[in-house]
Amino acid sequence: MKSRGLIFSAPMVRAMLEGRKFCTRRLDKSWLKYKKGSELWVREPFAINGHGQVAYKADGTVLNGLKWKSPIFMFRKDSRISHILTEDAREERLQDITLEEIKMEGISDQEILNSLPMFPPPNCNLDDIIEFMAKNLFKQLWDSLHPVGKRWEDNPEVVRLSWR
Fold first, then answer.
1. Which of 9, 10, 70, 92 could be disulfide-bonded to 57 (CB atoms 3.0-4.6 Å)?
2. Domain holding 110: CATH number?
3. Domain tally, the chain
4. Which residue numbers in the chain have pLDDT < 50?
5. What is the model's pLDDT at position 102?
6. How far is it, in rounded angstroms, from Cα 75 to Cα 44?
7. Are 106 and 12 a contacting pair, CB within 8 Å?
């Protein structure tokens, strides 16, 4: 079984710890070789004090004199989260994401509800508005993490990884 570290931001780690994040999309096609049963371990912003204790940015820890390290420098032994893929990695277009998968990406129902307009346009289906607003939230998240040419409006091919 393959095992590989996967970098996540502090907010996405919090979503995992809260039981809201069960999948991710990546631009790197090398993820396609990962099959059901492969292990993914989470690399996240962290710090290690002089006693070897690990602190994680996602926990909101205040550092006294230490600096957060990039997740790229995290060793497997310092990772606290791992996942087993529940299906083979698969390729798809970014904008093919569904409302259910947006929630699996860590966008909460509350975030979606908070984004809804107070007075929706007349003759609009509420389900369509909810899906539109959820996609807009995911678009904002995606675009905050990816460069021009790989943004939502570019609709790049991505590799979808999922776990439970």
1. 10
2. 3.10.400
3. 1
4. none
5. 98
6. 10
7. yes
